[in-house]
Design brief:
With 124 residues, the protein is α+β, with helices and mostly antiparallel strands. It is 34% helix and 13% strand. The protein has a 3-stranded antiparallel beta sheet, with helices on one face.
Length: 124
């Protein structure tokens, strides 16, 4: 019986990195961290950064501005304070399917009254 638990344990060790540390998940995690940094920047500076390089580096935090494929995350913003973060997926080209699909995250940096938002909507 102990042999079965050992085999199950080995299977889990092999499975966990691929499921939870996929390049897509790394990209989503980095985009979330960038979103927090952009919101904090907007709240404190009363403007959006011109580009992601303008965001402050915080020691001890995940500050990579690249996706899981080690390519720059695209940053777009408009006059209404809506930000779009984008990765072009595994192939690095717009569009695609599967691993080549684009990953996009958009969020507003201002509330309905035009005030800067400090935390993502729904954060508790």
């Amino acid at each position: 019986m102990d042999c079965y638990y050992f085999i199950y344990f080995l299977a889990c060790i092999d499975f966990i990195p691929y499921r939870y540390n996929s390049t897509e998940n790394v990209t989503y995690t980095r985009m979330t961290r960038i979103e927090y940094k952009i919101l904090e920047f907007g709240w404190s500076q009363h403007r959006l950064p011109r580009d992601l390089a303008e965001l402050p580096v915080r020691n001890g935090f995940m500050d990579k501005l690249i996706d899981g494929w080690e390519r720059s995350i695209q940053y777009l913003s408009n006059d209404n304070g809506v930000v779009v973060l984008k990765s072009f997926g595994a192939d690095g080209l717009p569009g695609g399917t599967g691993n080549d699909s684009d990953i996009e995250r958009s969020f507003s940096t201002k509330d309905t009254n035009g005030n800067w938002v400090r935390q993502p909507v729904g954060y508790r």
